[in-house]
């Protein structure tokens, strides 16, 4: 079972308080139901809670509470809902999917969209995506409100990367071909939402990382390594679901096709790759103080850069631990469609696959 494969990552993260986890659990359900994303049924809510998204939100910002924790919780909920929305029939209809992405991206205008006119009328929201569009607008408004113009521009670009990656991923799925390693890495670095989460962590912590720090090759490589490590682990844990779905954009499948080796050997190869990537991450992270010296960072800029590095290491630990605990990659997902819990998703029926609200399978 790929979900049983262990990757010994050398990263740590503080544990959030039980009160924070409870707040995030309540918030995730209330926000998703309130915006018409989540079916207001015990079965759908039970599945949603069994995904344990609150673990991620509180793990990413363990000291946050109140409205700031609500924002992070909503970001995590939004990215998960987007993933499942486009993983369903929406991703199989390229015209519909492109129209939805266009409508969602209009939320961030005039930021992030080259050539977008602030006064231009927003594109219509396709039927079936109204709830997602409303939730996106609400989230963006609260996320960007206290931040600078520079942060808003960057965050909007990252939202565009994230949303457009669903179109590229769906196109790859329709082609039915297994990509080579280079093409796999290029797209996988877009589909992982870690850059969206890093932006949200700045917003939650009310700090901003200097753009010249983010643009430095060392810091860019650290972000790339974070994504690659988590993508490698995630692809092992989710390969059975993606095979059933017809997805070929998975590292296990890529390496199997390239080398002609069996799954067990490929998984061991991926474990070795993850170990090497983690060592490189640690080596580069140790050089951050010298990087700040080289860039003549002032005290605030140094603190912000250090917080950025801590955010990346927390994300590595929290996301990996979550992937082992969530029901998202469990046996029941092998149909290729995750159970239908979204209010506007025609995914596989819930049936008896869902746990009840206590997390026990019915």
Summing up helix and strand content along with how strands pair, one would put the structural category as mainly alpha
Helical stretch count? 15
Largest sheet: number of strands, sense, barrel closure: none
Distance between the termini: 22 Å
Morphology call: globular
Integer average pLDDT: 89
Series of H and E elements: HHHHHHHHHHHHHHH
Tell me roughly what share of residues is in helical segments. Answer: 55-70%
| Count of distinct strands | 0
User: Which percent range describes the beta-strand content?
Assistant: under 5%
- Rounded to the nearest angstrom, the radius of gyration is 20 Å
- Spans with pLDDT under 50 lasting ≥5 residues? 345-362
Give a concise summary.
With 362 residues, the chain is mostly helical. Helix content is 64%, strand content 0%.
Structure explained in plain terms:
With 362 residues, the chain is an all-alpha fold. Helix content is 64%, strand content 0%. The chain is built from 15 helices and no strands. The chain is globular, with a radius of gyration of 20 Å. The two termini are 22 Å apart.
